[in-house]
Amino acid sequence: MNTISAPGVVWGNYPERRESDPLGTWRLGTAAYRKQVAEVGKYLAFWQNLSEANFAARLVNLRGRLARDGLNSARIAETLAVVGEAIRRTQNIEVYDCQYFAAAVILDNRLAEMATGEGKTLAALLAAASGALAGIPVHVLTANDYLVARDAERLAPVCALLGLSVGAVTHDMQEKDRRLAYSRSITYVTAKELVFDYLRDGLRLGTRRSDLARRAHALESKTEPPLLRGLCMAVIDEADSLLIDEAQMPLILSRQENDAASRGFHWQAMMLAERLSANIDFEQETEHSRPLLTEAGRHRLAALAAPLGGRWQSWRQREDAVGMALAARHQYRRNHHYLIRDGKVEIIDEVTGRAAPGRIWARGLHTMIEIKEGCKPSPSTRTLAQITYQRFFPRYLRIGGMSGTLQEARGELREIYRLPVVSVPLRTPSARKMLPTRLFASRSQLWAAVTERIRELQASGRPVLVGTGSVAESETLSACLDRAGIEHQVLNARFDQEEAMLVARAGQAGQVTVTTNMAGRGTDIPLGPGVNEAGGLHVLCCQHNASRRIDRQLQGRCARQGDAGSSETWLAVDEESGPTFIRLLKSTNQGHYGETMLPTWLLRAGLYWHQAQRSASQRRVRRQLLQADREWEQGLSFRGRGE
Asked: Which CATH number characterizes residue 327's domain?
């Protein structure tokens, strides 16, 4: 791609790609990336010998050549070398070959699978700064506001030496500050904040999708200019989390409205649901499935709702509202699906384990859960615009990213986003030890065994990181450890503000950290003195995740960059979210610690098969939702894009 994907004559004032347009790329092979990395070393030898004045002069010359020729494969090696030298001069850090390799992959519009601890932050900077040197506005997307602020502040001196500016967008920023941050050469931002700002721009632009219409509107309108400068280039950290796990989550820009009638309707639905009996008026196959009205339940509901009149006379609205109320009462659980903080219901993200303040369930479900928990119902909202990550990210002219767990989803990433996955070679061979999977008869026996295992590991001077399936389970294990007199720290959605601090301590000798899925993605766990010699960090996974990728994310917390470390998985046959074939063992298991009734290899094979089936099912759902979304947009084509 020789043309610079930036605002201007070619791409217009607000560049973005239509989903039908090809994603410009060179699509190099692995050997070509290795060759580029070798060339980087040659350029480094030249740039490292330059004085400060000569470095600045040569940098001006390089930027001129990039503006003329574009950010093409012939210029990548030299540009990466310049950024690497700037990192060395300002951070006193030598960039590794694996980081140059990952940056080259990202610049080739691909996703780099880069093992945990290999330095993704600097790899992202290498790619972002290379794009910015060519004049491309770059968005670097990371997991949370803490990492946004940390990386922007930490890496600003590197960019300053390169003549680039850095901005950071966080949740509490005002509009003028956001516009200023997006005007910088490189902007660090979370995906959620970026998408909402894009939707706000869409409301400003209305149906004016052509650049000529936008220019005319800007001349005749006194409204504020857009926040963004378009979707030119994105570098996505933890790409699988956004592009796969959260792909179908609707991001809805809404406006609060004072609708007392709607809140009253939801309150009535909860009262009616309370009068319906389980297994008579409604059925629920499992605790995770939606309750369904029986034929008797429909007749009883009609009789109960008859005196209410209004919307309750419509059988469709009646059954939909009460069905949602039954789900609020029986399917959604406190400290598993949501938590209560400061008198408000906060959703717990199923994948990350983090609280998601500001996110709400649709169709009145959020209000009904607030009523159930005795919280003050939130004001009603009216949707102004919405989009999903599946439809947003393909609009970038250039896009790349990285994560430690991409291979399992490589087919879907190529199909939906046209982003192939390339594995980055490890800097040093992994020393991680994978211990046998063990199975217990009940959760209570599991927690008792985990407590003894932690006591044993702690006595040997090793730190332990325990992964649990929910806030409630993390607190149950914490109570067991308290009773056993074992000091520990808990990292779950209640303590997300302290996440980085807790994770930073997790590698100290004898430290015990109980976590949910969040487990500090994006933050290193440095090992304390003597820990590597004692065997390194031990990860104990006590949850059956829907995806093999999530298992690997947790396992990847240990044994980084050649350090010692080990990981094992312990499960219980009565785990609610576990595979059916494991739950069936409950009737025959004798209840002894670690007794599985199955060989370890067969147990692992069964777990992997179950995860593959669930991943395939979720992939089909995402594909169907994307297709429905596209068909809906085509039906509204006379208005412009659907959002």
From this structure: 3.90.1440.10
